[in-house]
Design goal:
The complex is a heterodimer.
Chain A (H helix, E strand, L loop, with lengths): L9 H18 L2 H23 L11 H32 L3 H4 L5 H27 L10 H25 L3 H17 L12 H7 L3 H14 L6 H25 L6
Helix pairs in contact in A: 1-5, 2-3, 2-5, 3-5, 3-6, 3-7, 3-9, 5-6, 5-10, 6-9, 6-10, 9-10
Chain B lengths: L3 E10 L6 E11 L4 E5 L6 H9 L6 E6 L2 E2 L4 H6 L1 E4 L11 H11 L6 H10 L15 H13 L5 E5 L7 H16 L3 E5 L3 H7 L2 E6 L2 E7 H7 L3 E6 L6 H6 L1 E3 L2 E6 L2 H14 L4 E7 L2 H11 L3
Parallel strand pairs in B: 3-8, 3-9, 6-7, 7-8
Antiparallel strand pairs in B: 1-2, 1-4, 4-5, 9-10, 11-13, 11-14, 12-13
Helix pairs in contact in B: 3-5
Classes of the chains: A mainly alpha, B alpha/beta.
Chain lengths: 262, 302
């Protein structure tokens, strides 16, 4: 009787293969998945930086461009982390090639680690790219590098996991577009990328504090400029808790085969 | 231990008006080394049954095992023992043939699999396409890659869901030669197909499904002899008498009537003569699987 080939690399090798495949998927079209978002961020900097630099008052002595750049970096990180896992899943679902993955012995942990890990890698590559090209306009200060790393990783991880949830939920491209345009985009733009929330009217100021994206941007920025709207520790708590909550949801959906195994 | 065991498997898809019962208490075993055919008309539940076996769908009740591993409780071991060629012609446009096969090996935890991948490519006539992107392959070649992908981890049980739908004759032969070789080497094969002559030629045992139930489960040879074994074939332009029309299978001018023995052949011919039906190109032959299939499907309750 025949026996299957022995899984010489073990279960970990399976997860690593899926991660590698997900990285190749965006890397092979890197012009679109990495270079294009860097260019977008640069355009934001040129336009908003130029128009608003004399009009917007941020943290006391911090110049507007210096304030804006970390926000743009984090915005790019978040949007690309979401875009990677969500578009990969929805494309595989619609073209039907997700079946190759569904037939494998990979666990829900392997799916999660691979999809979120690859999303984080793309997000950090884009973030580093934005940082590199904007450094020419205003060299970034590195007040507290620990915060930079912590918020970049947690933010990318949370949006990668959220993209996984959206990719599992959506059955059509327009559902995915709705998720992106009505949830992700407003939350990023209303998170204080372009302004300090202290400059907002009381209602919007209060509302901003319910937006986890606000804490990601604020905490990340504090690592560069050494000043923030709220304590970075509070931000870390909110972002960490959001990451865990979204990850738990994503893992649950994967484990139960939500919209995958009928 | 059977290679595959279906134990009272039912599946109801939720929906309006109580939902759709796609499978209703399906039970049978496939023994190691068998070449097993699963036949039935569209909507009989073949693909649902295979989806449950492969873990793509979940049974509403009942159990399915592959090489003794439960497909739900011990899914990793069950899926390692199973190689599935899906019905849809799907592919990942980002990768070449070799990349796709390496990735699929990796998912199963198999490293350093290039020797086996090369052998698969060679046997499926894909060696010169190894570094071509999947998008650039013809439909028949994509189908061959699907077969290779199902076999990368050397599964003891191979499932082919309508593998030759829309595939040219040459490829069909290449494919069957290779699958037959794997079967001789000890792999268990489960095949669903619409081409009954393929099932007749390849499968040693056959299950027929209708309306989600097993309506026949026999060795192919017994299936062919156990039911009406003689077929009367002829051409005519005239309508048959009502009693004969009911039991006839008509394709354009060609009419086929089953008979159990020589006496029945005589009485059928007598009835045709009495009714004044002009018979041309009369043949008397052995029933093939298609005849048996039609007969069973007519007789079985929906």
């Amino acid at each position: 009787m025949k026996t299957p080939a022995s899984p010489s690399g073990g279960a970990l090798h399976g997860a690593r293969t899926l991660f590698h495949k997900e990285v190749l998927r965006f890397w092979k079209v890197g012009f679109q998945t990495v270079a294009a978002p860097v260019l977008s961020a640069l355009l934001y900097l040129l336009i908003f930086g130029h128009v608003l630099s004399d009009k917007v008052q941020v943290f006391g002595n911090v110049g507007y461009t210096r304030f804006l750049i970390p926000g743009l970096v984090m915005m790019s990180v978040l949007q690309n982390a979401f875009a990677n896992s969500s578009s990969s899943l929805i494309q595989s679902k619609i073209t039907g090639n997700l079946v190759f993955l569904l037939l494998t012995p990979l666990s829900h942990w392997a799916w999660f680690a691979a999809y979120v890990g690859a999303s984080m890698l793309r997000a950090l590559a884009v973030g580093a790219g934005v940082l590199l090209v904007t450094a020419w306009f205003s060299p970034p200060g590195l007040a507290q590098p620990g915060w930079i790393v912590a918020f970049a990783l947690l933010g990318a991880g949370m949006l990668g996991a959220l993209g996984l949830v959206a990719g599992l939920w959506a059955e059509k491209f327009d559902q995915m577009a709705a998720f992106q345009n009505f949830i992700i985009l407003p939350m990023t733009f209303l998170s204080g990328v372009f302004y300090s929330v202290h400059s907002l009217p009381a209602f919007w100021y209060g509302l901003s504090h319910l937006n986890p994206f606000f804490y990601m941007i604020d905490g990340f920025r504090s690592g560069f400029v050494g000043a923030s709207d709220v304590s970075p520790w509070l931000s870390l708590g909110v972002v960490g808790a959001s990451f865990l909550a979204v990850s738990a949801l994503a893992l649950r959906l994967l484990k139960t085969g939500y919209k995958l195994r009928h | 231990m059977p290679a595959v065991r279906f134990d009272d498997v039912s599946k109801t898809y939720a929906g309006k008006g109580g939902g759709l019962r796609a499978l209703d208490g399906v039970s049978f075993d496939i023994e190691p080394g068998e070449f097993f055919g699963l036949l039935g008309p569209n909507g009989a539940g073949k693909t649902t049954l295979i989806s449950i076996l492969a873990g793509l769908a979940r049974a509403s009740s009942g159990r399915v095992q592959v090489m003794g591993h439960d497909v739900a409780g011990d899914f990793a071991a069950a899926r390692r023992a199973l190689g599935v060629v899906p019905q849809e012609l799907v592919f990942d446009p980002f990768f070449s043939v070799r990349e796709a096969l390496r990735i699929q090996s990796g998912y199963f935890g198999v490293r350093g699999n290039d020797a086996w991948i090369d052998e698969l490519l060679l046997n499926l006539d894909l060696a010169d396409k190894a570094d071509v992107n999947m998008r650039q392959l013809s439909g028949g070649m994509k189908r061959r890659v699907l077969v290779a992908q199902a076999l990368v981890h050397r599964p003891p049980v191979i499932v082919l869901d309508e593998p030759t739908a829309g595939v040219d004759v040459e490829l069909r032969q290449t494919l069957w030669q290779f699958i037959a070789r794997l079967n001789r080497e000890g792999h268990t094969v489960l095949l669903t197909t619409h081409y009954l002559e393929e099932a007749e030629a390849l499968c040693s045992r056959i299950a027929m499904l209708k309306g989600g139930r097993v309506v026949a489960l026999q060795r192919t040879a017994e299936l062919l002899t156990g039911t009406a074994s003689t077929m009367l074939r002829f051409k005519t332009d005239q309508p048959l008498p009502a009693a004969l029309a009911q039991r006839a299978r008509s394709t354009g001018r060609i009419v086929q009537l089953k008979a159990h023995d020589a006496a029945e052949v005589e009485s059928l011919l007598g009835a045709l003569r009495t009714a004044g039906v002009k018979v041309e190109e009369l043949e008397i032959g052995r029933a093939d699987l298609e005849d048996v299939f039609v007969q069973i499907m007519r007789g079985a309750p929906a």
